[in-house]
Amino acid sequence: MATPIIELENVSKQYDDQFAVNNLSLSIPKGEIFGLLGPNGAGKTTTILMMLGLSEPTSGKIRVSGIDSIRRPIEVKRIVGYLPDNLGFYQNMTGLENLLYTAELNNIPKQTARERADYLLEKVNLTESASKKTGKYSRGMKQRLGLADVLMKNPDVVILDEPTLGIDPEGVRELLKMIRKLSEEEGITVLLSSHHLHQVQQICDRVGIFVKGKLLADGNIESLANQLFKEQSFVIHVNASPIDETLIQEIKEIPHVKEAVKTKSGLDVYCKEDVSPAISRSIIDSGASLYQISNKDFGLDEIYHRYFEGREQT
Ligand SMILES: Nc1ncnc2c1ncn2[C@@H]1O[C@H](COP(=O)(O)OP(=O)(O)OP(=O)(O)O)[C@@H](O)[C@H]1O
C-alpha cells in the first residue's frame, strides 16, 4: 500500500456511556478518494472533527501527513481543507472576495491569492459569477465555491462532509466530477462523508461502511461484498418456468448454495461460489424451461441494503 496520509489507530469517542466512534482503525493512502458511508448518527462527523483536532478522542491515535491531530491541531489545520455540511460565506461579499478573505486568514500573499482564486474559480465554473454577492448564489454554486475555498491554501487533504446535500441531480453530477478532477490534477487526498450510495460509488476509489460508530468493512465495491457476505458473495438470477417448491428445494441442495428466494421475475440464488451450470442442469432436468440465468452485480446499493436489511444474518 502507498504511504498513508491519514491514519487512525483504535480511535474511540465516548459521550456519557455511548460510543459515537468505537475502536476505529483506518489508513488512507495519498491521492485516494475515500468515501465514508453510513446512515445519520453513524459517527462520520465525529470522526472528521477528531481528524481535524477539533474534538479529542477518548482513546486512540490520529495522524494526518504524519502529524498528530490531537497534539498538533494547528499544524493539521494548515494542511487539511475542511468543507462542513453547513458551510457559510459572507453573504454581502462576492465569491472572489470570500476566497481572498480566506487567503488573508491563511497568510497567503495578495498576488498569489488573486492568481489562485482566479484559477480555482475557473476550475469550479464560477468565473462568470465571481463578482456576484454569495447571498445570491444557489446552493450548488455555494458548494462549488466551498470547494474552491478549501483549495485556496493548497491543502494535502480535503475533507468534505456531505458535500452534495440539497443540490439537484445535475449539480451533484457536476460537483462530483469536479472533485474527482481536482483530486487528480492537484494530487489531493479526499475524504468524503455521505449517506448517498450512488454518489460515493461514482467517484470513490475505496469506501468504508460505517454504522453505529464501527467500521463494518472497507475496500472497493467487490471486496466489500466479499467482506460483508462471506457466505453469500454470489447472487444468481434465474428466469425459468415453472419454478415449484420441489425445484427450489433441489437448487438449495446444490453445494455452495446458501439460499434461494422466489422473486417477481424468477428466483434469486445466494451462494458462495458461482454454481450457475449446476443450477441450469437442475432446471432443465426438472422439465422446466430456462429463459435466462445471470449473475447479479453487486452495486453499493445492493451491498448496503442487503446488509442493513439483515440479510447477512439469514
Ligand atoms: N457533542 C455531543 N454530545 C453527545 N452526543 C453526541 C455529540 N456529538 C455527536 N453525538 C452523538 O454521536 C453519534 C454520532 O454522531 P455524528 O454526528 O458523528 O454522526 P454522523 O454519522 O455524522 O451523522 P449525520 O449524518 O446525521 O451528521 C450520534 O449518536 C450523536 O447523537
UniProtKB/TrEMBL annotation:
The record, for Pfam families, names: ABC_tran
Tell me a Gene Ontology molecular-function term this record carries: ATP hydrolysis activity
Q: Which residues does the UniProt record annotate as the domain ABC transporter? A: 6-237
* Superkingdom, natural source: Bacteria
UniProt xrefs under InterPro entries: AAA+_ATPase, ABC_transporter-like_ATP-bd, P-loop_NTPase
Keyword Ligase annotated: no
Keyword Nucleotide-binding among record annotations: yes
Ordered alphabetically, the record's keywords are: ATP-binding, Nucleotide-binding, Transport
Family the entry assigns: Belongs to the ABC transporter superfamily.
Instruction: Name the chain's protein.
Output: ABC transporter ATP-binding protein
The protein's organism comes out as: Oceanobacillus halophilus
